Predict the structure.
Amino acid sequence: MSYESNPKDSNPQDPHSEASNPQFDDSRIKDHPDKLLLSRIRQYFKAFTTGDFDGIRDLEAPEYTMTDIPLAVLRSSKHSWYDQNKGFTNLLTDLQVQAISLHGTSFPGAFAILEHVVWFRLKADPPEAAKPNLPPGIKKGDKAGMINIAVLWWNPEGKITKELEYGRLTWDNFDITHFDAPK
């Protein structure tokens, strides 16, 4: 698996920028025209990569639902997803996210789509229940990645009302630079 990223170039005045969260590489999306959307995405992934589950929950509306296809979770409520996310993510360490592309808007009722890769190491050997969602034979300390599409809908207060995650594990010789637009 190849792990490559572009040099960091971010706005140090944004508290959620790459400078304040090296675990979220936003170098490919930093010029997105909707700065409010970009700020929300940075805030979300800062909470995710640092294990701030309460911070993630604070970004979700009361009616929030999550569908996470790789984990076989369908329309999980805000409360249920908190426990599911915390349980699975606590198996991981060295979480890093590399954004590939960002589309959409922060307008109420609208949605945004973030294409990204999540990289992680296992903190411990996985329990049997987690193995179907991980690479075969992965064990404590092994690194893996998952390429994902996250779709997030916003309410008038800027909270996430609905989230869909679609993804798959990365493959041998995966190289994120293959997703870069031709120059």
